[in-house]
Amino acid sequence: MRTRCVLVLASLLAVTGCRLDHGSSADDAGAAPDVDVDSPAGQGMLAVQARQCAQCHQSPNPGDGVLSGQTTPVPRTHAYGSNLTPDPDTGMDSWDAGSIALAILSRQGVDGGTLCGTMPAYTDAGMGTAEAMSIAAYLQSLPPVWRPIPASTCSH
Q1: What is the rounded CA–CA span in Å between residue 106 and residue 148?
Q2: Which of 20, 42, 139 is nearest to 91 (CA)?
Q3: What domains can be seen in the chain, in order of their start residue?
Q4: Which of 14-18, 68-72, 90-94 bottoms out in mean pLDDT, i.e. has the lowest?
Q5: Residue 36 in 3-state DSSP?
Q6: Are 129 and 101 in contact (CB under 8 A)?
Q7: How many other C-beta atoms are found inside a 10 Å radius of the C-beta of residue 114?
Q8: DSSP three-state, residue 114
């Protein structure tokens, strides 16, 4: 039997400052999808929560959407947590799951460049490919949120 992740999703939304909505409206553009914890996306959602990705990639304003980035830099840097939603203009729409997993594991961007050092290389934190791929599945399941984030300036 498949377990629905209502409690886990509610916990994630509480951490990220979002709300759980069951209807759809213009205000729901950034609402998290209902995710089955037994699915790859559900496992990714749990990993995103455990790894505290929202600390850098979630706005404090719930209306901005789930993991839609931050317009305030990481403290003591000029690095901004990027929009991780599949928005074609401001998010990761062009990134395939393998590219997302590679970025998470080794800080390599889709263009082959290195992401800012504020983004951990999660291989060093004990993450494996399966966990990174489940996070990619979760990110790809999010509703796209058009939200421009300032370009980061960082030293690698």
Answers
A1: 24
A2: 139
A3: 6-141 (1.10.760)
A4: 14-18
A5: strand
A6: yes
A7: 15
A8: strand
